[in-house]
Amino acid sequence: MSVLTFTPDGIYCAAGDFYIDPWRPVPRALITHGHADHARWGMGNYLATDIAAPVMRHRLGDIPLETITYGEQRVIGDATVSFHPAGHVPGSAQIRVEVAGEVWVASGDYKVVDDGLSTPFEPIKCHHFITESTFGLPVFRWQDQADVAAQINTWWSVCAAAGKTAFLGCYALGKAQRLMGMLNPEIGPILTHTAIENTNAVMRDQGINLAKTIRADADLTPKDHPGALVLAPPSALGSAWARKFGAQETAFASGWMALRGIRRRRAGDRGFVISDHADWAGLLSAIKATEAENIYVTHGYTDIFARYLNAKGWNAQAVPTEFGGDEAEDAA
Question: Which residue of 143, 166, 265, 279 has the fewest CB atoms within a 10 Å radius of its CB?
Answer without folding.
Answer: 265
